[in-house]
Every structure is written in C-alpha cells, then in structure tokens.
Design goal:
The structure is a single chain. The chain is of the alpha/beta class. The chain is built from five helices and six strands. Strand 2 (38-42), helix 2 and strand 3 form a beta-alpha-beta unit. The longest helix has 21 residues, at 115-135.
Length: 188
C-alpha cells in the first residue's frame, strides 16, 4: 500500500526518505497491475525483483514483460543514459514508458567522486532531468538514503524545478502477511 502522502498522479515525482525504495516498488507494482510499461534504472542495486514477481503473479497477463531494467554504476553512465533516453523519445524510437530511477544520486556521493566534480555532475543531472520535463518523458526518482551533505540538499532543492518532492516518513508501517517470500505456503 502507498502511504497517503503519495499523490494519485505520482509521475514526475521525487520520493525522498529511507522508505523511498519500498514506495518505489509499490508504485512499480501498481503500474504493472495497470498494464503500464516501466523502465527501471537501478543506480545502487536496489531493485527487489522477487518482490515484484511475487506481487504480480497470478495476474491474467505477463506483467513482468512490461519491465525493462538498466543499471548505471557511475555518474557518467547515468548521465549518458539520460542522453540515450532523451534521444530515443525525440526520434519516437521508443514506446512511452515511465522511467523509474532507484537511488540516482548514490554514484555521485561515492568516495571516488571529488567535491567539485560532484557539484558539477549533479548540476548536469538536474539539467538532463529538466530536459525530460520539456520532452514530457514521465519519470519517478527514488532517493532512499539521505546524505548529511550540503551538496545533497542543494541537489534536492534543484530537483524541485523538475517535479514534486515527496518527503517520506522514516519508516513505513509494517505490513502483515506475505512479504519477500515469508509466510508463503510453498516455503513449508
């Protein structure tokens, strides 16, 4: 279940907080249930594929066929991926899918990215996301790990130009029942 803080139209939103990854997965599940195609850009190995598979099994169609996945392990790979997506949309070479970014800023805050380079690259990232808005490319950002860094908060402030920032609670209420394969008859 999505927290009440998430708007019904969560496209072009930036979910921020420790629970953002869980919320992003719930959004992915909801989109798949509605036959929506999603492209997941996983920047920090955050995708929980088994959770999505569990949530979509038993549907009368192959929901998992509506997912594509790419990983970006460096800031430069992520920025290049933005270029590729934008170019494909401009040329109408791709279907209209929702781009879901899991932890996109993580790579920028790794120890091997120097402060000046980080500031510069995050500025470019924001510009590329602004281009998504201009091209009407639907996206969702999920920033789950808050960083105690002034640059991070400036980055979030800059993202406000691109979409709605949703500050999530630190922890979502526990859900009872099947989750991540727990309490499932096939495990007994």
């Amino acid at each position: 279940m999505l927290p009440e803080i998430i708007p019904k139209n969560f496209i072009n939103s930036i979910a921020v907080g420790r629970s953002a990854n869980s919320v992003a997965h719930t959004i992915i599940e909801r989109l798949l249930c509605n036959h929506q195609k999603v492209h997941i850009i996983d920047c920090a190995i955050r995708l929980r594929a088994m959770q999505i598979a569990e949530a979509t099994k038993g549907m009368d169609f192959f929901a998992l066929h509506n997912i594509t996945l790419q990983r970006a392990f460096t800031p430069y790979q992520l920025l290049d991926l933005f270029n590729t997506i934008s170019t494909s949309y401009q040329r109408n070479e791709t279907e209209r899918v929702i781009q879901i970014f899991l932890a996109p800023s993580k790579q920028f805050f790794d120890g091997d990215v120097k402060k000046d380079e980080r500031v510069h690259l995050l500025k470019i990232l924001t510009q590329k996301l602004e281009r998504f808005v201009q091209l009407q490319i639907p996206f969702i950002f999920s920033e789950s790990t808050p960083k105690d860094d002034v640059i991070y908060y400036q980055y979030l402030h800059n993202l406000e130009k691109c979409g709605k920032i949703i500050q999530l609670p630190e922890k979502l209420p526990n859900q009872r029942g099947k989750i991540y394969g727990q309490n499932h008859y096939s495990l007994l």
